[in-house]
Specification:
Chains A, B: Keywords: DNA-binding, Transcription, Transcription regulation. Chains A, B: This is DNA-binding transcriptional regulator, AcrR family. The structure is a homodimer of 193-residue chains. With 193 residues, chain A is mainly alpha-helical. Chain A has 9 helices and no strands. The first copy, chain A, binds a DNA duplex (30 and 30 nucleotides) through helix 1 and helix 3.
Chain lengths: 193, 193
DNA sequence: AGCCTAACGCAAAAATACTTGCTTTAAATT
DNA sequence: AATTTAAAGCAAGTATTTTTGCGTTAGGCT
């Protein structure tokens, strides 16, 4: 045989541990405060020993980084309600809810100059791109139905930006009603054009 | 005399220490890696004893929070051009520029991480409180002139939020033209009401 | 089925981070 | 300029976090 690497072993148990740990991180991030998260907590919740966490990930930041990159590659669906307003409202309300958990704060942080990925630098923009494509598809559907949709940029600026803004600066999420209000504003914008 | 409070003493030395610490934090934030920042480092750089940092700020997050709040309220003062549109455009363009500096990105990140009030203190969520007062004054001026200004919330959502959004998600600041376009959008909103 | 060893669990040690009691400095008050 | 006492300094604690050495478990291989 030629030059062998240490011969990793990513099979059964290792994968199981990884899954348990990831799940614990996401769960804790959903309920607990950001600052309260710690290696010790993740260990307790996941049933995986602290030592393992330290040996496999080294630091909490690296672990979170791992979790985030994994989840970012999974796209969550934009639904099709049949009308532009319906689609937009469903999306806006969904984001308003999602954005309330510390989990999204982490995503946010990762999105803007993410933490340091040790080895390769996995593309984070892909998430935004993918999501952007989905939203664009939603707008295209509306156009195909004969509606007069806004541009993607307008959607992002008028609806999405304020939702994130609320969380970052007011530290409180916008409610569903407020989210729908933003959609109103967006639609009013295109109606007058 | 009636019930006296502990009688604070914010004078000379205290202010000096505070200034030294703030300067150290900003410097370190500029050069050092994000995660490397620690109470110990700030203490060493500023020449202020660790104990003082712990006693005055409690945690690193609270300290950063303090620094960020201060700097955010200092930057981009609101000017009086005589018309609502003029004021808004001046402000929007100014923010678009400010937000382009690399240090702002750091502060933004810090803002997201730093905001969690430890026991006792009311949540210092609103970094823009002071700024909000200034902006409200600007809107009030417009109303006094007989113009029909938007609400503060509308201003924040329609103009400010997208400016920050650009930096965070597109990783590039909005140009002056774009900033003015946002002001147009805001004014169109109130015109139609 | 049996061997080899990567990956995990455990407990104890090492390293950091934070707190506490007391002393010293200097802002404010008289 | 003397007095008072918040706020800072210091050093010695306590607590928490991270590392380390070694025994155990269970993938992957023949």
């Amino acid at each position: 045989m030629e030059a062998e690497q240490p011969a990793r072993r990513p099979g059964g148990r290792t994968a199981r541990v990884r899954a348990a740990v990831h799940e614990a991180v996401v769960d804790l991030l959903r309920e607990e405060e950001w600052g309260d998260l710690s290696i010790a907590l993740v260990a307790e919740r996941s049933g995986v020993h602290q030592t393992t966490l330290y040996r496999r990930w080294g630091t909490l930041a690296a672990l979170i980084d791992d979790v985030v990159t994994e989840r970012l590659t999974r796209s969550s669906p934009v639904q099709d309600t049949g009308t532009l307003r319906g689609d937009l409202e469903a999306y806006a309300v969904q984001v308003a809810e999602d954005v309330a958990s510390p989990l999204s704060a982490v995503f946010l942080r990762a999105a803007m100059v993410g933490t340091h990925a040790e080895g390769g630098e996995p593309p984070r923009q892909i998430y935004l791109l993918e999501r952007g494509v989905q939203l664009q598809a939603m707008l295209d559907r509306a156009r195909d139905r004969g509606e007069n949709p806004p541009t993607l940029l307008e959607l992002l600026e008028v609806v999405l930006a304020p939702l994130y803004f609320h969380v970052i600066f007011f530290n409180s999420p916008a409610g569903a009603d407020h989210a729908r209000g933003l959609v109103d504003r967006l639609l009013a914008l295109t109606a007058s054009t």
